[in-house]
Amino acid sequence: MLKVENLRVQYGMIEAIKGISFEVGDGEIVTLIGANGAGKTTTMHAISGLVKPSAGTVTLDGKDLTKIAPHKIVEMGLAQVPEGRRVFAQQTVEENLTLGAYARRDKDQIARDMEDVFVLFPRLRERRTQMAGTLSGGEQQMLAMGRALMAKPSIVLMDEPSMGLSPLLVSEIFRIIEEINSKGTTVLLVEQNAKRALAIADRAYVLETGNITLSGTGEELANDERVRKAYLGG
Amino acid sequence: MEFLSYLINGLGLGSVYAIIALGYTMVYGIAKMLNFAHGDVIMIGAYVAFFALTGLGLPLIPAVLLAMLVCTAMGVIIERLAYKPLRQASSLAVLITAIGVSYFLQNGAQLLWSSSTKVFPAVISSGFFSLGSLSISYLTLITIAVCILVMAGLTLFVNRTKTGSAMRACSEDKGAATLMGINVNFIISVTFAIGSGLAAIASVLLCSTYPSVFPTLGAMPGIKAFTAAVFGGIGSIPGAFLGGLLLGVIEILAKAYISTQLSDAIVFAVLIVVLLIKPAGLLGRKMSEKV
What's the pTM value of the predicted model, to 2 decimals? Predict the structure, then answer.
């Protein structure tokens, strides 16, 4: 269970996150929706330790992540697919996936997990010796997701996984997110594509300029008048 | 024959530049900073080797190892104390700090060991290898061989080991590297350790060629090696190798055929021309600044 309580993040004089609380239960898909600049990515960064919150706590199974060195958070079972993919362009697909398992020590199991990633994303197998920078946007997104799975996380954070992809690929990505979740991995999803995100989410939160303004099940929010107006195009 | 011997001597000098340039280029590639104190780590290495050889009476190899040990520790400590607190600061602040560290080391050495020049003992064979009319000193050959070994070892390390892969990841994207569970601070320490250890090797080769040890001895080779790193494309390991060798060859040929006094000017003129044509250096990648 991931629990965010009264989280605040300050960039200089600007408070980007103004004391938000939410939780993600084991096995759930929870989505944070909101406009550009609402603080979605900042929230993700704060959970993964890339930015230091000015107040509040982030706990994973009772342990406070804000007191742990950022590189240790992966070891605790929390991985992230960052916004914009951020694959290592000058390393091969296989090297990227191996880096995903950097924090692990169970060598034999790593090889088997890479096989699982190739089953989930057959395109990556075809491209395994290719530099990640030469992949298409969709393939890079798959690589970023595969790389996060290589950490064997109990929860994976996905930041705008469908950004910039063709409609066909967007469907594919959302199908894969559901598949990952059905195998027991908890998912916290940040999306601008609110419609698709709400359709697969167990629960959802609406983030507006650093505050959570609405929450409910995916279905409730999809049918909420305000959400429909602001995020689903009427 | 004369040209060939100049060429080989140039490669010898260039090998020293290349080994030093590796320190600049690796630190730049990973910490994105110019460590202007790198030249002075060479100076520290030279003093340690000097005292180990003369004072302690150690043989060459243990003396080199001791110098490497001290320089490695120095590099890591400098990074911890001077640069790490500035991780979020502007690059100008880091640059000025590096220059400050450089002066600190130079003046510290002067205080500890005085400014008078010490004569480095001739520990590497002073003989010559002759082939027909061609005669090359063993020292030059050893220097070139050491440079090739260093280069091969480093390339294997960076491309084949887990830590090497993590280093390449950090040089591309530190945030993403952190998300993989890579301890970026540790990787930066490793980088400084390797660069400084190599500086110690370079110091012994350098002082065997030019046997005087003084507090500012690292300044000129430092700036030349930095030039070599930029020449080859800063951040690129093969670039440092190529840049170092080319710089050494150009310098020796300019000395031999044009003018001893103008040789440095010619070296820098070539650098300017190269940067005008290829702004990222010979093997450098054009990098876009990420916002």
Answer: 0.92
